[in-house]
Amino acid sequence: MSQNIGRGVAPFLSEPRNPSVKLSNSHELTSFLQPHRHTVQPMQGIQRKLVYVSLYEGFAILFASIGLALLSGAGAGKSTALAVIASVIAVVWNLAFNTMFEAWEARQQVRGRSIKRRIAHAIGFECGLGAILVPVFAWWLGIGLWEALLFDAALLLFFLVYTFTFNWSFDRVFGLPASAAVAA
């Protein structure tokens, strides 16, 4: 019985969905990272944005509460309150940033979301959010801006990876938005 633990996850992590796909070059890797073709219409518009933001921020509050408590020593209550404040700010920024990003993306000649485009998206989002949150962290925790910046840098590193991973997973499950869809 103990040999079966993790069997459901291990193949997903170590093998592509299609065993015949060989990931020997960057083009093939990029193709593998693209969402699989859906037989139903991918989620679009405001519904997509609301589901995205709800899932992203729900997990973010959980992770940030734990991280803030560990990093700041402020305790669970104060850290959770700060995580909720940061989440509300992040929701507004998320909607604004993704609207701007998708408007830019729709004007691009090359369609799809390559690794480079995903990295640019994650960096742009996190840098903008950091510029907003550093003063909030300084005020809430009663620390200077430099300390808040260092504190936020630790969270930004985590959320940079989280944002990239979440966006990739979200697109794999729900399909690409119309702004990035590759013509059939």
The secondary-structure class comes to: mainly alpha
Instruction: Specify the helix fraction band.
Output: over 70%
Total of DSSP H or I helical runs spanning 4+ residues: 6
The amount of beta strand, in percent, is: under 5%
Label the overall shape: elongated
DSSP summary, beta strand count? 0
- Give the uncertain stretches in residue-range form: 1-23
Strand and helix order: HHHHHH
Largest sheet: none
Average of the residue pLDDT scores: 77
* Intertermini distance: 45 Å
Gyration radius over CA: 19 Å
Account of the 3D structure:
With 184 residues, the chain is mostly helical. The protein contains six helices and no strands. It has helices spanning 10-14, 26-33, 45-72, 76-106, 115-141, 145-174. The longest helix has 31 residues, at 76-106.
Q: What is the element layout, followed by pairings?
A:
Blueprint: H1 10-14, H2 26-33, H3 45-72, H4 76-106, H5 115-141, H6 145-174
Compact summary:
With 184 residues, the chain is mainly alpha-helical. Helices cover 70% and strands 0% of the residues.
Quickly list its features.
6 helices, 0% strand, elongated, disordered N terminus, mainly alpha, 184 residues
